[in-house]
Each structure stands twice: as C-alpha cells, then as structure tokens.
Amino acid sequence: MRFDPWMLLDYWELLLQGTWLTIRITVMALVLGYLLGIGVALLGMARSRTLRAIAGTYVEVLRNIPFIIILFLVYYGLPFSGVRMPALFAGTLALSLFVSAYYSEIVRAAILALPRGQFESARAIGMSPAQAMWNVVAPQVLRTIIPPSTNMTLTMMKESAVLSSITVPELTYQGLVIQGNTFAPFEVFAAITLIYWMIAIVIAETSRRLEARVGLAQRQSVTRNPIADRYLSLERRPAR
Amino acid sequence: MKFNFEYLLSVMPRLIDASLVNIRLALIIMALSVLLGTGLTILRAAKLPVVNEVIAVVISFVRGTPLLIQIFIAYYVLPSVGLDMRPEVAGVAAIAFNSMIFVSETLRGGLATIDPGQIEASTALGLPPRAIWYKVVLPQLFRRVIPVLINEATIVVKGTALLSVITVVEVLRTAQQISAASYRPFETLLGAALIFLVMNLVISLVGKFAEARYAVSRA
Amino acid sequence: MTATLALKVEGLTKQFRGTTALDSVYLEIQPGEIVALIGPSGCGKSTFLRCLTWLEQPDDGFIEVAGQPFGRERIGAVVRRQSGREIDRIRPRIGLVFQQLNLWPHLTALENIVRPQIVVLKRPREEATRRARDLLARLGLADRAERYPHSLSGGQKQRVAIARALAMDPALMLFDEPTSALDPELVGEVLAVLRQLAEAGTTMLVVTHEIGFAANVADRIAFMDHGRIVEEGPARQLIDAPRDPRLKGFLDLVLSHRDGPAPPLA
C-alpha cells in the first residue's frame, strides 16, 4: 500500500465545501439548540407539575435514543406525516433537538446552583423577575455554563458527521464521495480526521477566550505529596 | 398514510430479536473499554517519557473526531493494511477504542478525588505498587466513577446503532430492512427508538441501584 | 402625632403548611426611629422580614411604607392585592440587608450599588455613580469601589450591601441579623456603622440577638415569640424591667451566654 496524500489536492474543493457546511451546521444547531434548551430549562423549573414532566420527558427521550435514529425519524418520519423537508434542514433540526436536551440540563443545573439569595436580593431591591434574570442570574449562569456547553458543542459537532447518512453534503459525506472515487481510504480519512480535529481545536480555543473574557478562569492547582502523585496524577511534573 | 399502531406492534418482535445483537456488542465493548481503559490509566500513571506524549495525542485525536469516522477507519482502513475484519469486529474495535479513552479520562478525574494520605501510608507500610493499585486505589476509584461508567454504557449502547452504516444487522439496520419492504419508515423507526429508550432507561435504573448500594457500603 | 409613619404593620399573618409563622403582628415605626426586633431563633423574625418585603406573600394583614400601602390595599371595604409591578415599584422604599448580604459577585462594589439605581429607579448612570461613590465614601470604602465582592473583607462587604440599599433612598432600612454572619472581631465594626446610620437619622428595623446593640442604639425594642410581638417598649425599660416571663427568660439566657460582663447600659 502506498501513501499518497497529494492526490487529495484534486478534491480540495469538495473538502472545503464539506468543512464549511459542517461549520455552518454546527453554528446553526448551537444557536437553535440553545434557544430550545433555554426554553426547556425554564419549563423544567416551572411551578406546574405537568410542564415539568413534559420538560423531563423531552430530555430523557432525546438523550436515550441514538442520534442517528432521531435524525431518521425527523427525515423519514416527518415527511410521512405530511411535512416534506430538505435533508440539510431536517439534519440541522435533528441536531438542534438532540443538543437542546443536553443544553437544557446544563442551563438548569447552572441556575439551580446559584444561591437563591442572588435572585431574591435583586427582587427585594425592586427588580422585576425579568430584570433580576437579566442583571443578576444570567451573567453568573453564563460563566458556569461555558465549559460544559463547550464539551457538548464539540460532541454535537462530531455527531453532525451522521448527517452524511441522509446525504447532507457535509465533511464526512464529501469524504465518502472522495473515497468512492479514489479507493484511498487511508488518505481520505486521515484528511477528514485532521479537519475535524482542527475544527474541535478552534471551538475549544474560542470557548477558552470567551471564558477568559467573561472573567473567572481561576483554577486552583492541587499540590500533593510526590509519593501520592505517583498514583494519583497522570501528568509528569513540570521541571523547575 | 396514517400512523398505524398495529403495524408498530407487528414489527416489535423482529426488532427485539435484533436488539440482542446490540446488547451483546455493547457488553463486549464495555468489558473491553473498562479493562483497557484501566490498563491505559495505569500506564499513564507510570509517567514514562514519550509514551505519555503519544497517548496525549491519541486522546486528543479520539476526542476531537466523530465516532462515525473512527468506525469508518476501522472498517475501510484496517483491511487495507492487512487486517481483514468482519464489520462486527471492526465496529466493536472502533467503539471500544473510543470508549477506552473516555474511561481512562474518567478514571483520571476520579484519581484527583482520592485521599493522598492513604497512598503515603501504604507506601510507608512498604506495600508494593501492584498492591497499592489493586487493593487501595482501584477499588475506591471504581466506586467513585460508577455513575460516569453507567453513563458511558448508555453512550456505548447508542453507539451500536451507528454500526448499521457498516452493515451490521442490529436494531436500526433491521428497522431499515423492514421499512424498505413495507414503506412504513415512521413506525419501524419509532419501534427502534423505543427499544433504545428502554435499554438505556434500564441501564440508568440499574446504575441508580448500584450507586445507592455503594453509597450505603461507603457510609 | 401627625407625621407619616415610616412603617405601619397591621395584623400580618403567615402560615406554612398549617404552622403559624406570623400570628397577627402589629408594629409601627416613626421616621428616624430605630427599632430592634429580638427573640429566640425560630420565633418568626426572619419570616417577618421576608413578608415585609413580600419575598414571602403574607396570608393576611396590611403593610404601609411611608404612608403607601404595600402588597395589599383597602379601597373602602374591599381588599385588593397589588400587582407584581406595583409591588416592585414600592420595594426600593424598604432597604433590606440580608443576613448573607447577597452581593452580586460578578459586579464591582460600585456597580453593585449603581446597577439597581439605573434598572429600578431609572436614574442616569452619572447620577447613580455619584450617589454610589458618595455612600461608599461615607462608609469608608472610597478606595474599594472597583473591587469585586470576593476580594473584600466581611465587614466591607456588609457596608457595600448597606450602601446598595441606601442608594435607593429607602424610607426604612431592614437588617437581618447583621452581626451573625461575621467573625466576632468584626461585630464592633458593624455596630459602629449602624450607629453612624442612626446618627444620620436613618429609620431602621434591626433583627438582632446583640442585646448590647439593642440596648445602646435602638430607641425601642420589640420582642417576638411564637410569631407574635409579645412585648415592646423603650429599649432601656424593656431590658431593665421586662414584664413578660418569656422575655425575662430570653434575656437571662442571652445575657448569661455572653463572654464577660454585659456592657454597661449607660
């Protein structure tokens, strides 16, 4: 077997298109998924027991079904009920639904973790519930949700590869097309992998900067006895 | 076409049969990933030069790329380097490799919560490293990470649905075969979704019991 | 007396699942007056403050702040519950300093004081900032304005919380156990600030178990037990000559638990 990455140059356009579409789908699902997620989170904290049960069921169902089945249900299932939609639209919608279940749990946990007094002190001074949410709760929640939301967004971005199975021409789909033309799986998948990896790094880096801007990136370092460190740490100590 | 509940019921037996494939594969994958993930963690704890750097790159690769691509690599690439594998084996290898990395990362997180005093005491008592791992560190570690491992198990179960794309005849593939013949995709897919829902809810439930039991024995 | 009362509470009642937390509480506070509310823990003091600010909805009774009905109003023979918006409009007239302070950690000390003025009172930022800096200076925190709460000491945080409430120009300040969340050595500092406010003529209702403060600074003491105000009167008189046996028992208990001799009540 010979390794010839240069032949991929003939297909650079397809790779670029696929990459761009994957990025667009990820951003769309991030926005749509978060809007849905915030809605479901607020529903999950409603006074009405029925509303809470609806939110809970939404989350449990979406989290326990493989994404590929959610995708097929939206793509093949909804047309069946009369709604016909293009693959890209169905794919983005399915991805948004999928990720919204996780985002909603992140948002809900962050709000519940905030001491009650924060909201109450804003209310007691005369802010309306919406003003208290906007001025006091939201900025603090934003800080705590960034790291878990980043992880979830990375997962979702990777999950978008499954959209290839309903012919959305994103990165994985283009990879499979090139692979079908060239029969060079090693080169193709190496390239695709590298691109996904780079997108992941960009997302992680963006999130890191965002976190630094929102303030609060203090991590306490644990100093341990070197003997215990032999077992409890996987990093080599930095040379001093 | 209207939703046909009778039809949904009629496809369930075949889908349930097929779910045995998912269960079998998920069990094999979990066993492999916990075993290999533990081994990998101990290896990383040895802090060998170069080895850890290489592992770090592999981890970053696995975490940064889609599971589907990893499955494709096992399916398309490995045969071309001489490892001819059945789709099932390639799929198990890919998901187990992926899961192994996540197990090791979970264990790494758990290690940070173990009281270092015990290790110092064990070392002072002259326990060999093997005993410290097997008798002191790992038992506590596994108790602590059980909830995360249970969660990983549900991810693995969901992952087995992806094997349908490399022609493994499991629940989703079976559902697709049925609906290709009957043109009723919605009911069959819903049936498949229900099966995964039930499998994962059962796992979560078992996990809750296990957690409660360990919580009691810890107290 | 014709002056409008700073606070007038009539028959305030609150029940939680059958247990009566507040049992028809009556209380009047004159402008400039300082009233200490004392009583054993669980007597309903905290519920009283929460109902006064409508953080908890009282089941019955009326509150008037500087002559304005708050929460419920009587129109002829009809009782009307005010809307959330109406309640929000009156809330800044009562400055509540929480036991846990509840400063907003994502805002600087200055912004903690400025933000509610802008959001609630619609003051222009310059005016709100001027007012905030003024108050910080008065409370000896001029150089701490740009600090975030986590880098302030307990006593400094408390003064920021006080300034935050004062900036809203309240008719009345409420303090929930202002000394209990602090280290013992800071208690003196807080009491000094409360004295300073008292000298400036601030109307205050202070829930406290600092009998020393109650006796020295407060004009009047109200003793609460089992959700009722059992006895109230001029501070000195209430402590020197308690009439109610429960108050007597409470005072004995509190004074005997103090370290060293009780401060002179001169």
UniProtKB/TrEMBL annotation, chain A:
Keyword Zinc among record annotations: no
What the entry lists under SUPFAM superfamilies is as follows:
MetI-like (SSF161098)
* Transmembrane portions of the chain: 20-46, 58-78, 183-204
Bilayer topology annotation: Multi-pass membrane protein
Key words, A-Z: Amino-acid transport, Cell membrane, Membrane, Transmembrane, Transmembrane helix, Transport
Please give the PROSITE patterns that the UniProt record associates with this protein: ABC_TM1
- Localization, UniProt: Cell inner membrane; Cell membrane
Q: Which residues form the ABC transmembrane type-1 domain?
A: 19-207
Q: Does the keyword Cell membrane apply?
A: yes
- The main place the protein resides is membrane
Q: Which Pfam families match?
A: BPD_transp_1
Function of the protein = Part of the binding-protein-dependent transport system for glutamine; probably responsible for the translocation of the substrate across the membrane.
Q: Which family does it belong to?
A: Belongs to the binding-protein-dependent transport system permease family. HisMQ subfamily.
Q: What is this protein called?
A: Amino acid ABC transporter permease
From TrEMBL, chain C:
- Which Gene Ontology molecular-function terms are recorded? ATP binding
What is the recorded membrane topology of this protein? Peripheral membrane protein
| Keywords assigned by UniProt, alphabetized | Amino-acid transport, ATP-binding, Cell membrane, Membrane, Nucleotide-binding, Transport
Q: Where is the ABC transporter domain?
A: 7-251
Main location per the UniProt record: membrane
SUPFAM superfamilies per the UniProt record, alphabetical: P-loop containing nucleoside triphosphate hydrolases
Q: Which InterPro entries match?
A: AAA+_ATPase (IPR003593), ABC_ATPase_HisP-typ (IPR030679), ABC_transporter-like_ATP-bd (IPR003439), ABC_transporter-like_CS (IPR017871), MetN_ABC_transporter-like (IPR050086), P-loop_NTPase (IPR027417)
Subcellular localization(s) per the UniProt record: Cell membrane
**At the top level of its lineage, which domain of life is listed?**
Bacteria
- Membrane-spanning residues where? none
**Pfam families on file:** ABC_tran
Recorded family membership: Belongs to the ABC transporter superfamily.
Q: What is this protein called?
A: Amino acid ABC transporter ATP-binding protein
